């Protein structure tokens, strides 16, 4: 059986699912897009090709192999974008949660069935139908679980609203011994600079009790104040709206002091090194055109306790 355990975002990674880009087809119509950044690149004629994304994913896998990390990947489904493995399942402690995601992506779960079959049934939890969530909105942080969500009106209004209050409440009930905290995110179906598709598009804890944070991604000031108080102002790397648009918070921690980052994030990467992190730089900007980056493309199954 496959043992799973995720306590936080930065304990040493041992096993991970990495998305694939082998055969997601071409997108020529903005009606086929379900986020504003993808729409922007379709209209500009700069939407990424499958081949360019495969190259980027292979570079990420090379880094994981460098650190002897076990890598799983979905089976290919023709014409389906399977890059963003983070969203279709997620792990908290020893539980793998299977959420209800948007209809456009409902077939992606079938491609990792061979992995799920190797996990004990007692550790697999299926969300009830009214509870909606995607893994990019769920961030484990030891005794806390941070959840990006949209209240009723926003959830109904915006296609980019992926986690609702029922999903948040389900996680609170599932993990009564954890402090499960919800943050409302700013949403826009048409302006990518005003949209935090998921919580990890504007916030992520990293090692050394630090975090990356974009204030403009949050709907309520009280949530920003909470996170500043939680981590401490001196332990937060702040990014601006343009850096949020470029996915600067969506890096990936291999361990407490090793981070994989997009090589174009010059300011962020220099700051990380100044704080003592080892930064493994790779090109991932083509995948970034689809409103996801390194965290979105990875679904950790087990980190060292």
3D architecture notes:
The structure is a single chain. With 305 residues, this protein is α/β, with parallel strands linked by helices. The chain has a single domain (13-303), classed as L-arginine/glycine Amidinotransferase, Chain A (5-stranded Propeller). 25% of the residues lie in helices and 21% in strands. The strands form five sheets. Strands 2-1-15 form a three-stranded mixed β-sheet, with helices on one face.
Q: Considering DSSP H and I runs of 4 or more, what fraction of the residues is helical? A: 10-25%
Named CATH architecture: 5-stranded Propeller
How many β-strands, per DSSP?
A: 15
Reported for the largest beta sheet, the result is: 3 strands, mixed
* Tally of discrete structural domains: 1
What is the residue-averaged pLDDT?
96
- Structural class, by secondary structure, is alpha/beta
Query: What is the end-to-end distance?
Result: 18 Å
Strand portion, in percent? 15-25%
Shape verdict: globular
Cα radius of gyration in angstroms: 18 Å
CATH top level? Alpha Beta
Helices, by number, come to 9
The low-confidence runs, each spanning 5 or more residues with pLDDT under 50, are none
Q: Write down the secondary-structure element order.
A: EHHEEEHEEEHHEEEHEHEEHEHE
Strand order of the largest sheet: 2-1-15
CATH topology descriptor:
L-arginine/glycine Amidinotransferase, Chain A
The CATH homologous superfamily is called: L-arginine/glycine Amidinotransferase, Chain A
